[in-house]
Amino acid sequence: MLLELERVSFAYPAPAGRRAFALSDVSLELAGGEMVGVIGPNSSGKTTLIRLVARVLEPATGEIRLDGVPVRRLARTDLARRVGVVPQSAPAECPFNVGELVLMGRYPHGPGRYFESRHDRAAARAAMEATGVLELADLPFDHLSGGERQRAFIARALAQEPRLLVLDEPTAHLDLRYQVEVASLLRRLNRERGIAILLVSHDLNLAGEVCDRLVLLAAGRVAATGPPEVVLEESLLSSVFGCDVVVDKGEPARRPVVRLTWRA
Question: Among 98, 102, 188, 207, which lies 20 to 30 A Cα-Cα from 132?
Answer without folding.
Answer: 207
